[in-house]
Amino acid sequence: MADNTKRIVFSDIDGTIMHEPKEFDRDAAVLLTPPSASGRQGVISAETLHLVAKLRARGALFVVISGARLSTLLMRLPYLPLADAYVCENGGRILYPGSDLPTACPVTEDKEWRASHDHAAGSIEQDATPPQERKGPLWDLYRKLHSEGWSLDANGYTTSFRVHAGRNGKSLEELRAVVAAAPAGLASSFNLGAADFYPDTSGKVMAARHLMARFGAPAPACSFLCDDDNDLQLAAEVGRAFLPSITSDSVRVAAEARPEHFVVAKTAGQGVVATEEMLHAVMAHYKLN
């Protein structure tokens, strides 16, 4: 790979660069986040922050890309690595570091990208409107599923919502049927055993393609730190995937089928230790050590 080739290291958050607090994390210097909207806390190690900074200092771009709701991303910004872009809600919102105003965590939204989802999610002016009252096909589906008794989560989301199986008497098979019958203009993916619905212009792959074009980085030169079902499409699109943990059977099957493409941490599942191992592996992959 030529030295002037642009490359982006994409990274999920939960289970990838940030983990649930565990006993064996306590020997490391870590930051502990406040609880998210779903009540989950996370830890990220100081070494993770330093390694990402080293990657960027040596020429790689770093992009956080997550299914997390906008409110959770904004709450976690002071704890995340400094990145070249932050993507949340499965691609629905993209933020860049920096602002014309002297705020504590300066970021600027890609408003054109957000507007590209208006056909399904409605405009950004709806962010403060209760989900039941929002306009657009995405929220029409939300109201339909709510009337059918599904367990829904739109708290803090603006361009997507989550549907849970195993609650209110609804099975995973029934949820898969809902996914298969989703209206035109919408897409979905599974994450943590639930289904996320969002505009078909969104999704991690669509957001990543937008950023690869913006930064001039070809997909084969990019990589992805990831762990779950909703990461597999982007993992297949880039040149290499690095797994600090494996949180679904489908990811395990994919990694076993293509060991040359999926690099699984020897310490997989061991929180920040596995993250640091994979960041060192990324640096070795790009010969940035």
TrEMBL record:
InterPro entries: HAD-like_sf, HAD_sf
SUPFAM superfamilies tied to this protein: HAD-like
Domain of life from the UniProt record: Eukaryota
Protein name: Sucrose phosphatase-like domain-containing protein
Species per Swiss-Prot/TrEMBL record: Chlamydomonas reinhardtii
